[in-house]
Amino acid sequence: MSNDSTTTSVALERRPRAEAQSVEDLVRDFHEGRLRIPGWQRGIKWDVNDAQKLIDSLYRGFPVGTLLFWQRAADRETLTLGNRAIVVPARSDAWYVVDGQQRITSLVRVLSGDADEPFALYFDLDTRTVSAPGRGGVNDAWLPMTDVVDSRKLLRWLSKHPDADPDVAFDLSKRIREYQIPAYVVQTDDERVAREVFERTNNTGKSLTVDEVFDGRFRGIGGMQPAGVRDVVQHLEPLGFGRLAPERLHTMMLATRSHDPSKATTVGWSDAEAREALNDLQRAAKLTIDFLMEDADIPHVQFLPYHLPLLTLTRLFHFHPTLAPRNRVLVARWLWRGTTAGLLGGATIRTRATLEAIPAGGTQNETVQRLLKTVEEGRGVPFELQPDHFHGGHARSRVGALALWSLAPKHLRSGRPLGASDVKPRQLATKIPTSAGIGNRVLHPSVPGGLRRAVLVCDDPATLRSHCMSTEFLACLRRGDVNEAVQLRQRYVSTLTDQFVSIRTCWDESDRPPLSALWDEDDAA
């Protein structure tokens, strides 16, 4: 399909037909493969709270909007829904969801999901309200919404709960099963028409993001892989760096094509250009994440002080996918010097200047030396941790958290090494004068009884040292001097952070290029 389809005038050969679909039919049709989600639809945006409001509206008889389907043949495929994969057969009369994806997928997940479905909801037969399970679990009066549409499941549940009011349960089942949602069905063989309808119906409400517009234009073209920015997101997730937002990846893709992504656009791109750009993005983004984790000592996106390096490194690895070991060291210095001097905050002028240092035709050695010059003004600028004011979203605090991570923290109960995705900078104690400081933060998962108790019962000195906790700190904590203990640890963490920064910025060391540059101006591997 050519990108000219975005500007070509198209029209329906016949008007959409109007009909109503019951909730019971919609759930069944999804499992039987009649309802499909086109590849150019945006991802799931709703959460369990949105689903709860939808089910409550159905129960109360409130309007829930109109659905729009595109009728066409569909191949056998695997549909992913939450944590489940559903294999559906080929059909000649499939309905692709043009408008209503969030509502339909929420209905299917709530009314036919598994026990561990994140969208699990219950109906309280006593208060007649729809609720998600809380920390206290559920009680006998809570009917699982997964047992409401299927009458056999409902009867089995009622037989196991003789005190439940069957009249209320049957009334709920009838209201949900028989609720009729208005729908229009578009019949056309021209995919351009369906895409234009999709774009027009999504011009109101929550606006499409740039990555969703891009995927909507190109996703599903000729079996292209990756088929869109969201596919790149999924490809990168197994690396363990955490999820990069599709919008950010879209900007990273533009950085491979332009030194000013804020002004770059994909308008006018051909199918071939989109395919090439997505493949380039996937390769360069993986190399970027590998570099951040292995060379820059940044194990997870939650620790990343600034996001500008994502654009810079993606452009760098696009043009120079195999950096010489010496150049990898120098690029890590560039990142840490710019970070600790506050030069990578992402202002448009700064972004453009940094990306301009990576020209399309430059050699690897020259490019790395130019990058280093972009942060030279940070020489002599001391890094200020501001240890009294920790904020997880601030770059300075994240540098401090990375210094704590450099100690390879262990679980206070089991002693096992912690993973970067397992931890949050949690407070050790509350209601103390120094509670806002970094000395009161521990990189650890939540534990029953709280972190303070876990520290007090930990008898392994190596585990305590992995959290920058000394015997003096522990002695203060045990005698109840919590504030003094936190102040003491704050001094330790400040010293640790200064050492951490000094080792990685290496301002006093030579930034010479690889020795091979003395006799070979070409890129060195």
Notes on the structure:
There is one protein chain. The protein is α+β, with helices and mostly antiparallel strands. It has 3 domains: 199 residues, no CATH class; 169 residues, no CATH class; 111 residues, no CATH class. The strands form 4 sheets. It has a 5-stranded mixed β-sheet with strand order 1-10-3-6-2. Strand 7 and strand 8 form a beta hairpin. Helix 10 packs across helix 11. The longest helix has 24 residues. It is flat and about 75 Å long. The relative contact order is 0.08. The N terminus is likely disordered.
Proportion of beta-strand residues: 5-15%
Give the termini distance in whole angstroms. 39 Å
Mean pLDDT: 87
How much helix, percentage-wise, in residues? 40-55%
The total beta strand count reads 12
Give the uncertain stretches in residue-range form: 1-8
Domain count: 3
Q: What coarse outline follows from CA principal-axis ratios? A: flat
Structural classification:
alpha+beta
Largest sheet: 5 strands, mixed
Q: In order across it, which strands form the biggest sheet?
A: 1-10-3-6-2
Helical segment tally? Answer: 19
Distinctive features:
525 residues, alpha+beta, 3 domains, 5-stranded mixed beta sheet, 19 helices, 11% strand
Describe, in short, the structure shown.
With 525 residues, the protein is of the alpha+beta class.
Blueprint of the fold:
Blueprint: E1 17-22, H1 23-31, E2 35-36, H2 48-60, E3 67-74, E4 77-81, E5 84-88, E6 91-99, H3 101-112, E7 122-124, E8 129-131, E9 142-144, H4 151-160, H5 166-178, E10 180-187, H6 191-201, H7 210-218, H8 229-236, H9 246-255, H10 271-294, H11 308-319, H12 325-340, H13 348-356, H14 364-373, H15 395-405, E11 424-427, E12 441-444, H16 451-457, H17 461-465, H18 471-478, H19 482-505
Parallel strand pairs: 2-6, 3-10
Antiparallel strand pairs: 1-10, 3-6, 4-5, 7-8, 7-9, 11-12
Helix pairs in contact: 1-3, 2-3, 8-9, 8-10, 9-10, 9-11, 10-11, 12-14, 15-19, 18-19
